[in-house]
Design goal:
- The structure holds two protein chains of two kinds.
- Chain A is mainly alpha-helical.
- Helix content of chain A is 55%, strand content 0%.
- Chain A contains two helices and no strands.
- In chain A, helix 1 packs across helix 2.
- Chain A is extended.
- Chain B has one domain: Amidase signature (AS) enzymes (Alpha-Beta Complex), CATH 3.90.1300.10.
- Helices cover 39% and strands 16% of the residues of chain B.
- In chain B, a hairpin with an 8-residue loop joins strand 16 and strand 17.
- In chain B, helix 2 packs antiparallel against helix 3 and helix 5 packs parallel to helix 6.
- The longest helix of chain B is centred in the last third of the chain and has 27 residues.
- The N and C termini of chain B lie close together (11 Å).
- The model of chain B has no long low-confidence stretch (mean pLDDT 97).
- Chains A and B meet through helix 1 and helix 2 of A and helix 10, helix 11 and helix 12 of B.
């Protein structure tokens, strides 16, 4: 799938507003850089073949 | 270096009192630590009381516990009663002092060990170098121009410099194994869920492990035995009974040893590959095998860490961003923006790669990989290069440790004898779940053959 390179930046700006953060341009640019690295990692796991029914494994013991 | 076994023997036979051992330890810390910057707090008053209690036991001819009079120190994310738990962060300085010791400190104390202080770390454990902008960088005892590794850098460097024979640290993505490799000491990251984290400052609940550092495998095993046992206060603790290892450090006959190739070779430089080769030869490794999901496990760990760590600190990041560590605060904020579907996918990948790893353990008892892609980088280096590829230093030095902690396997990091004039380099001795005994026995075998060793700087 072709990816739009603008997407991480647009997403980060919107998500920062949604979460109530307020940063200046330099801070936002640094956050975008780090999110771009995270997004590259996400592409690896999103393409990893999994059985449809495989479950996550968080710990919850009521 | 005076190891745990030696200290206990001297106290038992009356050569030294616990108070005298403590006096020697304080003198060494006070002489060397101002240049190394391992300690962020010293708990000498408390240590004097604990040492006196050990000496009183001996004077009364009472049985001495296994770590009687052994000085130790802890990464400053462990609660110490009466001290503020910093977790390397200025934003925590105004928190209330801890009301009680962390569970693992209480267990060390019960075993007779004497707590002498708290140790430096990357802020909130989010880094691999212990370049802490608030409390200073911890220097590598073998080369003061280089990092000690992190995030448990103070814990590894304090053992490497001979300040204390035992320390405790934490490992979410490599924070015990990376500094153990750079500083040339032994470190144990047990199976996920083996040791309770009660009373420690959290980072990533899904991935946080605690464990010890030591200068010998015998000391490491003694500490590990003292730390084991169930604790209902940590939901992720597996509540297993103590499975002592100290009395059984011989490598089982016929043990099947494999070397991890693929990802683990691609991201290892010549020094790292040399260390793996030395360990593989000494342990009679028969095959090079591949954990196909290694890259995906590393990515899953990266996503889970970012999301959980970011969520944990989100509220304070929005109010006190400028007070957070400049090396990691933007990364934390970025993590707090990760979509939920990526986190769930990362957890599913984690489970899948764990199953792949279990298949490897049908054929092998122990797997070997380098602990770090390179030896310790220079302080201040923003990137490092492996086989022509560059990675960001503070986020990337765990490239070989992250896939393993992501799936919770036990690992002993063992310092391999460096080439002449070379820097320390460690290997990961990786066992099947709950087989810390195999990891430690392999480390002991390497130590006995002189392949693994801890050298004072």
């Amino acid at each position: 799938m072709e990816r739009n390179t603008d997407t991480p930046e647009s997403y980060v700006r919107a998500a920062l507003r949604l979460q109530g953060y307020r940063f200046d341009q330099a801070q936002t640019a640094e956050i975008i850089l780090h999110f771009s690295r995270i997004e590259a990692m996400a592409q690896i796991i999103l393409q990893y073949p999994l059985p449809f029914g495989s479950q996550a494994a968080p710990v919850f013991r009521p | 270096m005076t190891g745990t076994a030696s200290v206990v023997r001297q106290i038992r036979n009356g050569t030294h009192s616990a108070a005298a051992v403590l006096t020697q330890t304080k003198a060494r810390i006070d002489a060397l630590d101002p240049s190394l910057n391992c300690f962020t707090a010293k708990t000498y008053e408390r240590a004097s009381r604990e040492a006196a209690a050990v000496d009183a036991l001996r004077a009364a001819a009472q049985p001495l516990p296994p770590l009687a009079g052994v000085p130790f120190a802890v990464k400053n994310l462990f609660d110490i009663a009466g001290e503020v738990t910093l977790a390397g962060a200025r934003v925590n300085e105004s928190n209330a002092p801890a009301a009680a010791d962390a569970e693992l400190i209480a267990r060390m104390q019960k075993a007779g060990a004497v707590l002498v202080g708290a140790l430096n770390m990357d802020e909130h454990a989010y880094g691999f170098t212990t370049e802490n902008s608030h409390y200073g960088a911890t220097l590598n005892p073998h080369d003061h121009l280089r990092v000690a590794g992190g995030s448990s850098g103070g814990s590894a460097a304090a053992v490497a410099a001979g300040l204390v024979p035992l320390t405790l640290g934490s490992d979410t993505s490599g924070s015990i194994r990376v500094p153990a490799s750079f500083c040339g000491v032994f470190g144990l990251k047990p199976t996920y869920g083996r040791l309770p984290r009660s009373g420690s400052f959290p980072f990533v609940y899904s991935l946080d492990h605690l464990g010890p550092f030591a200068g010998t495998v015998t000391d490491l095993a003694a500490a590990y035995d003292a730390l084991q046992g169930p604790d209902p206060h940590d939901a992720a603790c597996a509540q297993r009974a103590v499975e002592p290892v100290s009395a059984a450090l011989a490598l089982p006959a016929g043990i099947r040893v494999g070397v991890l190739g693929g990802w683990f070779q691609d991201w290892a430089d010549d020094a790292a590959r040399r260390a793996v080769q030395l360990a593989a030869t000494a342990l009679s490794a028969t095959h090079t095998i591949e954990l196909k999901g290694a890259e995906a496990a590393r990515a899953a760990a990266f996503i889970i860490t970012g999301a959980e760590g970011g969520a944990l600190h989100r509220e304070r990041l929005s109010r006190q961003f400028d007070s957070f560590e400049p090396h990691s605060r933007a990364r934390l904020v970025a993590g707090s923006l990760i979509p939920a579907s990526w986190v769930v996918q990362a957890q599913r990948v984690r489970q899948q790669v764990y199953r792949e790893a279990l298949e490897l353990f049908d054929r092998f008892d122990l797997l070997i990989a380098a602990a770090t892609p390179v030896s310790a980088p220079l302080i201040g280096a923003d990137t490092f290069t492996v086989n022509g590829r560059s990675l960001p230093t503070r986020a990337g030095l765990g490239v070989l440790t992250q896939p393993i902690s992501c799936i919770g396997l036990p690992v002993c990091a063992a310092p391999i004898r460096p080439a002449s004039g070379g820097l320390p380099m460690g290997v990961q001795l990786i066992g099947a779940p709950w087989r810390e005994d195999v990891c430690l026995a392999a480390a002991r075998a390497l130590e006995r053959e002189g392949v693994a060793e801890v050298r004072l700087p």
